[in-house]
Design goal:
Blueprint (H helix, E strand, L loop, with lengths): L1 H22 L24 E13 L4 E12 L3 E7 L4 E8 L13 E4 L4 E10 L4 E11 L6 E8 L5 E8 L20 E8 L4 E4 L3 E8 L2 E6 L12 E4 L2 E6 L5 E6 L8 H18 L7 E7 L6 E2 L4 E5 H4 L8 H17 L6 E3 L6 H18 L9 H12 L14 H5 L4 H18 L1 H14 L3 E3 L1 H8 L2 E2 L1 H5 L5 E2 L7 E4 L2 E4 H9 L5 E8 L2 E8 L11 H5 L6 E7 L3 E8 L3 E5 L7 E3 L8 E4 L1 H14 L5 H16 L5 H7 L9 H20 L3 H14 L1 H6 L8 H16 L3 H16 L11 H8 L3 H13 L3 H11 L5 H13 L8 H10 L4 H10 L1 H7 L5 H11 L5 H13 L1 H4 L3 H32 L1
Parallel strand pairs: 1-10, 16-17, 17-19, 20-21, 22-23, 26-32
Antiparallel strand pairs: 1-2, 2-7, 3-6, 4-7, 5-6, 8-9, 10-13, 11-14, 12-13, 15-16, 18-19, 24-25, 26-27, 27-30, 28-29, 28-31
Helix pairs in contact: 2-4, 2-5, 4-5, 5-8, 6-8, 8-9, 9-10, 10-12, 15-16, 15-17, 17-18, 17-20, 18-32, 21-22, 22-24, 23-24, 25-26, 26-27, 26-29, 27-29, 29-32, 30-32
The protein binds ligand BES and zinc ion (ZN).
The site of zinc ion has 4 residues, from helix 4 and helix 5.
C-alpha cells in the first residue's frame, strides 16, 4: 500500500518538476518593447504580496469603454527593484510606486514592460523595495468593454418595445480579473478590496459589498463607494453597472438578500428570493459558520457563458439559472434554478471562505459545491426529490472516467487554457461522488464535523487536497482512540490511523487513491456457497483483457474501496475496506443473491459471475422491490457499462431490464429507457433501417402501458412530472401516433389562442417539437422565439426549432446563432449540440464547426465550457471509422492550437467507443429484437 502512495507522490513530484522546468528562467523572454522581461514563469513570484486594492472604475455605456485606477498596497518579502503582476488587453496609462506614506519614490513616470504571452506586466522601481516594508503600486488603465463573456464585458437586452439597452458586468474566474484591472490574479493572493464605481444617474452599480455612500462628482456623474471587502481571491471580485430592478428579503440572521433582473422580468424573481433565503439559512446552520457579509445579491445577466458564478456577495447567473415563471417554467426548470442557487451559495463557504491554493485542486471548490447542491436541497426542499438525480451525477463522471483520456481529480494545470479545462465532470461530478462515498463511510455526523473543522481551519486562506484529509478526522488521545472513537491518535505509532470496525484505516492514504489516480475500479465477484471471491481492476470501456495494451493500462492502479453489500438475508454496510487486488469475504449464511455497493454509495462498478447476474435478474423479475430504487438503477447502469466494455453480452443486459414493465419508480425506468433510446439514436444515424424500425416498435410495444398512462398536464409529484416529461418526449420522438395526435391538438389550440393559453409546462417542449415539423409551425415558433420574454420558454422553442427534419432550416438556425442578434451568442454552443443530435443535422453541425472554427474560438476561448460543448456535442454523434478519421484529420490540421486540449482526446475516444459498441452488439441486437417481435 505504501508503495502505491510513494508512486502517486512520485508522479505528483514529477509533474511539479516538469512544470517548473518549463518555466525556468532562460533570459529569453522579451517584452513588447524589446527589452528583457524580468520574470519568465507563468506563475507570479511569491515575495510580493497584495494586501489591499483600492479600485476606481468608470464604464461608459455609450462609448462602451472603461477607465480605471487602482492603488494596491503590497508587502515585499524579498528585496527587489521590480514588481510583476497580471494584466491582459489593458492599456496602462501611468504606473508609480509609493512608499508607506504614499510619497512617490521618484518624480519620473515609470516604464511598464508587457509580456502578453504570460498576461503579465512589470514595473521597475527607481529605488530598491526592501523586504519587510510596505509600498503602494498606483496604476491608471483603460480598455474597451470586452466583447465576449470574460473580464469586464458588455451585455445587452431588448425591452418589449424593441429598444436595446446596455449593461456592463464582470466574470473573472479563473483568470480574467486581469482583463479588468492590473492585479495579482492567482487564488493564493487574498486581499481586501475597496471599490468605487462611477455611473450616470439612470444606472445602478453593484459590487461584492454593500454601498457605503454615493457622491455626485459633477458632469452628471455619480460615484458609488462600497464598503471594504473581506480578504478574498481576485477571481471573486465583481462589479456591474445596469438599470435592473430587484426584490429583497432578510434571513433570520439579518443578511439582506436581493434578486436582480432586467426590469421586465422582475416578476420572475420571486422564487429565487425564497430559495436563496432558505438555502443561505441552511448553510449557516450546516457549516455552523455565519455568512460574513451584510448582503448577498443574485443577478440574472442577459449574456453569460457559464451557468452561474459565485462572486462573493454578488453571484451572477444566466437568466435560465435564476428566473422562474410559474406559468411557463417546468418542474425541471424549477429544480435547476434551485440547484444552481444551492451550488453558488455553497461556494460562499467552499471556495470563497476557503479557497484552493492552486487550480490543480479546483475540485475542492467545485466538487464540494456540486455535492452540497444535493445535501442542501434534500434538507430544504425534500419534495423536489433531488436524490433521484444523484446517481446521474456519478454515471456522468463514470462515462468520462472509464476512458483512458480521463485525469486524476487533482491534476496539473498551469496556463489559462489548462485551468479552464479543469472545470469539467471530473472536478464537479467525480468530486461529488467520492465525497458522497466518504460521507457514507464517515457517517453524516462525522462528515459534517470534519468539513466544519476544515472550513474553520482554513477560513480566509487557502487549502490543498491533503489539508482536507488532515482536517476530516479530529485528533484524540491514545485512550479515546483505543476506546474506538472516530479520531486520529496523537501518538506517533498510530498517527493517521483511523479507527474503523476494528481495523486501522489511513483515511488520507485511502482518499489519495481516489484523487491522485484517474479511473474507476471494477470489482469482480465470484460467488461460491458462503464465499465471495472479489478482485479489483481498473475499469476500461474500450480495452478488453486480451488487448495487448491491457496490462500496461492496468499497471499500478489500486484503490482503497469501502465495500458494502446486501444479500437475500441481510444488509452488510461498511463491512470491509478492500485495499488489495483480491480478497475473500465470508457470508454469515447461505444466500439466494448478493448485490454489492448498496445504493451505489461507492464509486465503483460491479461485475458478477454468471450465477450472480442470473440471481439478480431473477430477483428483479419476481420481486424487484427487494432492492432499493438506487440499487435497481445501478444494476441497470453496471450491466450496460459492462456491455460497452465487452464484458457482458447485450442479451444479458436486455434480459435484466425485462422486468421494467412492472417498474414504477422513475429513476430505474428512465435509466433503462435511456439506454434503449441512446442505442436507437446511434443506430438511427447509421441508417440501419431494420434495427431502427424494430427497436422503435419494441420500445413502443414494451413501454406502451407507461406511455399511455401519462396525462398531458402538470399534475402530480415532481417524480411523476419528470417521468411524464421524458416519456412523452420519447414517445413523440419515436412517432407514436397517439402522442403525435395529442401534441398536435394542443399545438393547434395554442396557435389559435395566439400563444396566450398556457400549455402544461412539462409537456410544452414536446408540443412545440411536434408543431415545428411543418413550415408554418416552424416559422410561427421562430417568430415567438423573437418575442418571448421568458428564457426557459425560449430554450424550449429553440429545441423545437432544432428538431426540424429540414436541413435548410437547421442551417438557417446555425447562421442566426452565429450572427448573435435574434439568437444570442451565449446559446450557440447548445444550439450546435441540438442540431448535431438531430439525425438530419449531425453532419451539418460538424461541417459548420469546421468551417467556422476560427470565429467560434474567438467567441468561446480554447478550454472554455462553450468550445468544449461544441466539440463534444458534435463529435460524439459519430460512430464510424471514416467519421473518426475525418475528426482526427481536422484536429491535426489545427494541432498547434488544440494540442493541449484534453477535450479532443475525450471526444475522439467517445467515437471509438461508439464504433466498438456497434461492432460488438449490432448483430445481437438484430437477433434479439427479431426474437422478441415475432
Ligand atoms: N465557479 C463556477 C463558474 C465557472 C465555470 C467559472 C466555468 C469558470 C469556468 C460556478 O460555480 C459553477 O460551477 N457554475 C456552473 C453551474 C452550476 C449549477 C454547476 C456552470 O456554470 O455550469
Ligand atoms: Zn461552482
Amino acid at each position: 500500500m505504501h508503495l502505491l502512495l510513494v508512486i502517486l507522490l512520485f508522479l505528483e513530484a514529477q509533474l511539479c518538476v516538469q512544470s517548473s522546468d518549463s518555466n525556468s528562467p532562460s533570459g529569453e523572454n522579451l517584452s513588447t518593447n524589446g527589452l528583457p522581461f524580468p520574470w519568465s514563469k507563468v506563475r507570479l513570484p511569491n515575495y510580493i504580496v497584495p494586501v489591499h486594492y483600492h479600485l476606481l472604475i468608470h464604464p461608459n455605456l455609450t462609448s462602451l469603454r472603461f477607465n480605471g485606477s487602482v492603488k494596491i498596497e503590497i508587502d515585499v518579502k524579498n528585496n527587489t527593484n521590480w514588481v510583476v503582476l497580471h494584466s491582459k488587453n489593458l492599456r496602462i496609462f501611468t504606473a508609480t510606486v509609493l512608499d508607506e506614506h504614499e510619497a512617490h519614490l521618484s518624480d519620473k513616470v515609470l516604464s511598464v514592460l508587457e509580456y502578453p504571452a504570460h498576461e503579465q506586466i512589470a514595473i521597475f522601481s527607481p529605488k530598491i523595495l526592501t523586504s519587510g516594508e510596505k509600498y503602494f503600486l498606483y496604476l491608471e488603465f483603460g480598455a474597451p468593454l470586452s466583447d465576449g463573456f470574460y473580464g469586464f464585458y458588455k451585455s445587452t437586452y431588448k425591452t418589449k418595445e424593441g429598444e436595446t439597452r446596455f449593461l456592463a458586468s464582470t466574470h473573472f474566474e479563473p483568470t480574467s480579473a486581469r482583463m479588468a484591472l492590473p492585479c495579482f490574479d492567482e487564488p493564493i493572493f487574498k486581499a481586501n478590496y475597496t471599490v468605487r464605481i462611477r455611473r450616470d444617474p439612470s444606472h445602478i452599480a453593484l459590487s461584492n459589498m454593500p454601498l457605503e455612500q454615493t457622491v455626485e462628482i459633477g458632469n452628471g456623474l455619480f460615484e458609488d463607494q462600497f464598503e471594504v471587502s473581506v480578504k478574498m481571491s481576485s477571481y471573486l471580485l465583481a462589479f456591474i453597472v445596469c438599470d435592473f430592478r430587484s426584490v429583497s428579503g432578510m434571513t433570520a440572521t439579518g443578511i439582506n438578500i436581493s434578486i436582480y433582473a432586467v426590469p421586465e422580468k422582475w416578476h420572475q424573481t420571486r422564487y429565487a428570493l425564497e430559495a436563496a433565503l432558505r438555502l443561505l439559512e441552511f448553510y449557516e446552520q450546516y457549516f455552523n459558520i455565519l455568512y460574513p457579509l451584510p448582503k448577498l445579491d443574485l443577478i440574472a445577466v442577459p449574456d453569460f457563458q457559464a451557468g452561474a458564478m459565485e462572486n462573493w456577495g454578488l453571484t451572477t447567473y444566466r437568466e435560465t439559472s435564476l428566473l422562474y415563471d410559474p406559468d411557463i417554467s417546468s418542474a425541471s426548470d424549477k429544480l435547476w434554478v434551485t440547484m444552481v442557487i444551492g451550488h453558488e451559495l455553497a461556494h460562499q463557504w467552499f471556495g470563497n471562505l476557503v479557497t484552493m491554493e492552486w487550480w490543480n485542486d479546483l475540485w475542492l471548490n467545485e466538487g464540494f459545491a456540486r455535492y452540497m447542491e444535493f445535501v442542501s436541497l434534500e434538507a430544504v426542499y425534500p419534495e423536489l426529490k433531488v436524490e433521484d438525480h444523484f446517481l446521474d451525477t456519478c454515471f456522468g463522471a463514470i462515462g468520462r472516467d472509464s476512458l483512458n483520456s480521463s485525469r486524476p481529480i487533482s491534476s496539473l494545470a498551469e496556463n489559462p487554457t489548462q485551468i479552464e479545462e479543469m472545470f469539467d465532470t471530473v472536478s464537479y461530478d467525480k468530486g461529488a461522488c467520492i465525497l458522497h462515498m466518504l460521507r457514507n463511510f464517515l457517517t453524516n455526523e462525522g462528515f459534517q464535523s470534519g468539513i466544519i473543522r476544515y472550513l474553520r481551519r482554513f477560513s480566509y486562506s487557502n487549502a490543498r487536497n491533503e489539508d482536507l484529509w488532515d482536517s476530516l478526522i479530529k485528533t484524540c488521545s491514545e485512550e479515546e482512540f483505543t476506546a474506538g472513537e472516530y479520531c486520529y491518535s496523537s501518538t506517533q505509532a498510530t498517527k493517521n490511523a483511523y479507527h474503523f470496525a476494528g481495523e486501522h484505516i489511513d483515511l488520507k492514504e485511502m482518499m489519495y487513491t481516489w484523487t491522485l489516480q484517474k479511473g474507476i475500479p471494477l470489482i469482480t465477484v465470484k460467488w461460491k456457497e458462503r464465499k465471495l471471491y472479489i478482485g479489483q481492476e481498473r475499469f476500461l470501456k474500450i480495452v478488453l483483457p486480451d488487448d495487448p495494451s491491457w496490462h500496461s493500462l492496468q499497471e499500478g492502479y489500486l484503490w482503497h474501496i469501502p465495500l458494502s453489500y446486501k444479500t437475500s438475508h441481510s444488509d452488510y454496510e461498511k463491512k470491509h475496506i478492500l485495499t488489495t487486488k483480491s480478497d475473500v469475504l465470508t457470508l454469515d449464511e447461505e444466500v439466494d443473491w448478493v448485490k454489492l455497493n448498496s445504493d451505489m454509495n461507492g464509486y465503483y462498478i460491479i461485475h458478477y459471475d454468471e450465477e450472480g447476474w442470473n440471481a439478480l435478474t431473477e430477483l428483479l423479475r419476481v420481486n424487484h422491490t427487494a432492492l432499493s430504487f438506487k440499487d435497481r438503477a445501478s444494476l441497470i447502469h453496471n450491466a450496460f457499462q459492462l456491455v460497452t466494455a465487452g464484458r457482458l453480452s447485450l442479451n444479458r443486459a436486455l434480459d435484466l431490464i425485462g422486468y421494467l414493465k412492472s417498474e414504477t419508480h422513475n429513476v430505474p425506468l428512465l435509466q433503462g429507457l435511456g439506454y434503449l433510446q441512446s442505442f436507437y439514436k446511434l443506430i438511427e444515424k447509421r441508417n440501419i433501417a431494420d434495427i431502427t424500425h424494430n427497436l422503435k416498435t419494441y420500445i413502443l410495444q414494451y413501454f406502451r402501458d407507461v406511455i399511455d398512462k401519462q396525462s398531458w398536464s402538470d399534475d402530480g409529484m415532481v417524480s411523476d412530472r419528470r417521468l411524464r416529461e421524458e416519456v412523452l418526449s420519447l414517445a413523440c420522438d419515436l412517432d407514436y401516433p397517439p402522442c403525435l395526435e395529442k401534441a398536435k391538438k394542443l399545438y393547434n389550440s395554442w396557435v389559435e389562442s395566439n400563444g396566450t393559453i398556457s400549455l402544461p409546462t412539462d409537456v410544452s417542449e414536446t408540443v412545440y417539437m411536434v408543431g415545428a415539423q411543418d413550415d408554418s409551425g416552424w416559422a410561427y415558433l421562430l417568430e415567438k422565439y423573437g418575442l418571448s420574454m421568458c428564457e426557459t420558454e425560449k430554450s424550449k422553442f429553440l429545441s423545437a426549432l432544432a428538431s426540424s427534419k429540414d436541413s435548410e432550416k437547421l442551417s438557417r438556425l446555425l447562421q442566426l446563432g452565429m450572427d448573435g442578434t435574434l439568437i444570442k451568442t451565449q446559446n450557440l454552443p447548445s444550439l450546435i449540440y441540438l442540431v448535431a443530435r438531430n439525425p438530419v443535422g449531425h453532419f451539418l453541425a460538424w461541417d459548420f464547426v469546421t468551417k467556422h472554427w476560427d470565429e467560434l474560438v474567438e467567441k468561446f476561448p480554447l478550454g472554455s465550457f462553450g468550445i468544449r460543448e461544441i466539440i463534444v456535442g458534435t463529435v460524439t454523434q459519430f460512430s464510424s471509422t471514416e467519421e473518426l478519421r475525418e475528426v482526427e484529420d481536422f484536429f491535426k490540421s489545427i494541432t498547434e492550437q488544440v494540442s493541449q486540449l484534453r477535450v479532443i482526446q475525450v471526444a475522439t475516444e467517445n467515437v471509438e467507443k461508439n464504433i466498438m459498441w456497434l461492432s460488438r452488439n449490432l448483430e445481437s441486437m438484430r437477433t434479439w429484437l427479431q426474437q422478441r417481435l415475432d
